[in-house]
Amino acid sequence: MLTPRRIWSTRSVLKQLTIMSALLGAFSTATLVGVTIDRSRTLQDGQRFELVPPTPMEIAQEKAEAERLATIAAGGSTHSPMQCVIEFSGINDPTLLDANEVDLPDATKVIGVLRGGMACALVIDDMCSPRTHVVNMLMGNKPVSVAYCNLSNCIRVMTDDKPQWIPLTVTGLDIHNQLVVGLRGTHYTQSSKQLPLTDVPYERTTWGRWKQEHGATKIWQDTTSR
Question: What residue spans define the domains of the chain?
């Protein structure tokens, strides 16, 4: 029986390897590419691959994507030029746990929010990954988005008047080490006054103090990292 082969576009492979190299920082792109063009390399699952020229459609799509990312990176009236564009959808409509469902040290640093008749704490350390810089949730049927940048140590909590969670996304990092977020196709520095959302008061505190003051509190933590 013939072993099935995976056919990858050269451009797609190099693009993915460049992203991997930038994120992992463990290997240079050149090293990764050198491994890729070794046609005798076998994938982990036993399947083999070969490189084929990209189609005109693939070339056009990748050119359009490169232009889109370059436009974002250039900055504009709502955010400064960017040193890094890394797009994540944010943590959307997450499960919020009761206080007695988690086992956290009282000294754990949290962001405390009161909204919609609810109290909720978010574990700050769990928001340090680019994937988790933004959490979009509902509190008592009120939308609340929490954005945290560990490089600038900046927190912003926001809401609007719509009945569903806010589709706030992570866009990347600007040249001033400020988080850039996206909302419905427009990109903003985390602290931008042009971001069309309403700020919500919050408290930076510890888990022990917050749950003592708000016994019925909910809590968000990144369970995927545990």
Answer: 5-54, 84-225
Element (H, E) at 24: helix 10-24
CA distances from residue 125 to 109, 111, 143, 194 in whole angstroms, order as listed: 7, 10, 22, 28
pLDDT digit string (tens) for the chain, length 226 residues: 333 333 333 344 444 444 444 444 433 333 333 333 333 344 555 666 678 888 999 999 999 999 999 999 999 999 999 999 999 999 999 999 999 999 999 999 999 999 999 999 999 999 999 999 999 999 999 999 999 999 999 999 999 999 899 999 999 999 999 999 999 999 999 999 999 999 999 999 999 999 999 999 999 999 886 6
